[in-house]
DNA sequence: TCTCAGCTATAGGGACTAACTATGGCCGCT
DNA sequence: AGCGGCCATAGTTAGTCCCTATAGCTGAGA
């Protein structure tokens, strides 16, 4: 039984005549004749009665033809579903993002993406780099936004922007009025850090070699928001990426001091599997990044 | 797009692995591989993402696979419908029958047929011979029960029984106590006949050559039942087939007198198109006739 | 009665395709 | 480095699907 044969019996039932049915199917009359005979043989039932001046479905044939119409309809829907899905910018995109980027970039990015690909909503997974790498590999997300380096074998990356780090200190701190701070100045155990596993923590440690890992959890924050609050309450100083400072540096309990040039920075990138079936979705994301307006992002695209 | 290809993508989505999916479909791995690629090419959409350690449906692929399952289900139902219909004794049989047989034979025949083919109900068309011939030809009925001769080209017939004709007269009629009546005795315009078009009328005219066609409608009956009433009310005499006399000659307003041997009779037969797709249904009808118990039918089968 | 037209079934040939085996490339694991 | 699992490609074969040509049948009309 093939879809073609089903089309043949439906046409024959409609036309009541082998020749016209064949014409309707754009095949020759013997082709249709043989196909019907083959199907009847396969089923072991005579589907049509060939009479003197007519061809008409038997009792069984009538039921079979009706069911065949249903089957052909469902089959046609398969094609339609596939065709509708040809637009790679339709349907949700599963986006992974690290904690230190998501809350600050995504509000703007989503807004920008709406212009580029209005039919492609984002399903967002916020997690740490290592977990995102695994999820990307296991096909649980389609694209991730992380900070470089992101050395995962078999994954494509594309840098999208750089952003500087800045020092934040509580109001009244001795550094409050300095024009800049050298990375080496950031030292000692009054520096608040994110908990282990956050890549931004490692980047700070790399940029400011004098910082010592605090021995107690008291100087570790779960998120950048927590760190800001801890700094504002006078627990210590910290280092944040520029995009996380809020615009325009709104919290009046903390002061923001730039690093001495060249300031430490991080490079943010997209990453995806090379086999990902919707490359245009990646392009759309890049376009959305190009549409970002905040000066915190030094675009690379 | 073929049903086979749909089976392939469903299997691949289930197994997540080309080799296992191919095994599941009892084909080689390259076969499945090229079939999937062909389908993706036809649709213009990538249905599966081939990753390092996995094969998984894309967003479109997922929808397509779901729809493919529906289509395959409907296609399988086609086969089931056909298979269920293999029993020729299932489903209604369209039976045509003439007015002078139907009301007397069918009650018994239906009862008998229930034993032989319980799943084959009769859809009954009662009409005159000429119309039944046309309906048989036009495939509006499957089988007809008529009185021979039934010379319709391209139709098969099989005699099933003979039944004698009998004379009926009203109580008090001079013939009431005769042992038999010769066909030639039935004469004159006191003989009631069916209206033109009923084959039984012609058979009576053939059997009793002295009978003249009445010039007025007053001596014509629409049905055998009407004729009986007219005889009972004293309007005249008539000739009926034995099966129409009622059992056991119940009407006490009329008397039944046999013809002199050899009594005129009619031969009743089945007729069907030679191409009819359910020969076993004919056999079942014949079996049902064999099961008739009334002495009115001298069975020929 | 003969012929013609319309219809379906059959025969024979050709092109396509869908299947196979064999093999190559890639990656991860030992 | 070697091995095994996995998918893609190449080349071949067998099957089948469709075509043209034609035969057989029937009904209509000359």
Based on secondary structure, the structural category of chain A is: alpha/beta
Helical content of chain A stands at 25-40%
Structure annotation, total helices of chain A: 9
Number of domains of chain A: 2
Which pair of chains has the greatest number of interface residues, and how are they split between the two chains?
A-B, 49 and 49 residues
Task: Tell me what you see in this structure.
Two copies of one chain form a homodimer. With 301 residues, chain A is of the alpha/beta class. Chain A has two domains: 3-84, Arc Repressor Mutant, subunit A (Orthogonal Bundle), CATH 1.10.10.10; 87-301, 3-Layer(aba) Sandwich (D-Maltodextrin-Binding Protein, domain 2). In chain A, 38% of the residues lie in helices and 21% in strands. Chain A has helices at residues 3-15, 18-24, 29-43, 59-84, 102-116, 129-137, 199-207, 224-232, 279-290; strands at residues 48-50, 55-57, 93-98, 122-127, 143-147, 156-170, 191-194, 220-221, 237-241, 254-258, 265-272, 298-299. In chain A, strands 3, 4, 5, 6, 7, 8, 9, 10, 11 and 12 form a ten-stranded mixed β-sheet that branches. In chain A, strands 1-2 form a two-stranded antiparallel sheet. In chain A, a hairpin with a 4-residue loop joins strand 1 and strand 2. The radius of gyration of chain A is 32 Å and the shape is rod-shaped. The structure holds a DNA duplex (30 and 30 nucleotides).
């Amino acid at each position: 039984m093939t879809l073609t044969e089903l089309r043949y019996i439906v046409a024959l039932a409609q036309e009541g005549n082998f020749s016209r049915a064949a014409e309707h199917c754009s095949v020759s009359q013997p082709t249709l004749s043989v196909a019907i005979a083959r199907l009847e043989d396969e089923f072991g039932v005579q589907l049509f009665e060939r009479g003197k001046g007519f061809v008409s479905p038997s009792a069984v044939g009538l039921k079979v033809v009706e069911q065949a119409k249903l089957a052909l309809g469902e089959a046609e829907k398969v094609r339609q579903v596939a065709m509708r899905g040809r637009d790679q910018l339709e349907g949700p995109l599963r986006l992974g993002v690290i904690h230190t980027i998501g809350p600050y970039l995504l509000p703007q990015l989503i807004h920008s993406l709406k212009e580029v690909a209005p039919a492609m909503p984002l399903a967002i997974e916020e997690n740490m780099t290592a977990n995102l790498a695994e999820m990307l590999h296991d096909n649980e997300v389609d694209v991730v936004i992380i900070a470089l380096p992101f050395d995962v074998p078999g994954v494509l990356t594309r840098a999208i922007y750089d952003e500087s780090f800045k020092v934040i200190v509580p109001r009244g701190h001795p550094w409050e009025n300095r024009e800049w701070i050298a990375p080496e100045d950031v030292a000692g155990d009054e520096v608040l850090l994110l908990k282990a596993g956050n890549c931004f923590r490692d980047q700070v440690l790399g940029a400011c070699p004098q910082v010592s890992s605090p021995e107690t959890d008291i100087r570790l924050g779960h998120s950048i928001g927590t760190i800001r609050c801890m700094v504002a309450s006078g627990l210590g100083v910290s280092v944040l990426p520029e995009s996380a400072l809020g615009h325009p540096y709104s919290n009046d309990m903390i002061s923001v001091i730039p690093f001495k040039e060249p300031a430490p920075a991080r490079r943010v990138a997209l990453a995806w599997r090379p086999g990902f079936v919707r490359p245009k979705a990646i392009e759309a994301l890049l376009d959305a990044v190009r549409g970002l307006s905040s000066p915190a992002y030094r675009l690379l695209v």
